[in-house]
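Researcher: Next entry in the queue.
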Amino acid sequence: MIKKSEKVPKQMKTKYAEIVSLTDEFCDKYLTEEYAQLARYAAAALSRKRLSPLNTGKINSWACGIIYALGFVNFLFDQSSEPYMSAVELCEKFGISKSSGGNYSKKVRDTLNMYQMDPNWYLPSQMDSNPMAWYISVDGLMVDARHLPRELQEIAFEKGLIPYIPES
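Model: Structure for this entry, 168 residues:
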């Protein structure tokens, strides 16, 4: 698990604020506060990159790309998920084409090493149902940390291998 932060270098504060303004407004209107918080973390992480990709391109494209990337990780585009929104609808609401939204999403995912069900970028309220957050290697064997003794769960948590210590 990575440590998330909203800290941003001084020279990126304005761009960060502009992007977060758009993602916060979008999440408030169409998604959830959890998505908004993850978007703030993602925008901050992108801002902290040595050569921040946010220095090129339009603000609305980056805002869309961040939400699109988080949607990819969290199955936003799957009709059986809640909330649900199509990729086309998401991009339209940011005023960009689906191909641009997909391209910016790919840049975000590649830069932040995101993948589907990535525990680092998964909605906290859904973490219990994310097997990627719980499987760890113990003596070369993959096990679900939720079924380990509490002492081993505490060690796994301290090492950042699981998101929290599950209740007994």
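Model: The two ends are 22 Å apart (CA to CA).
Researcher: Noted, moving on.
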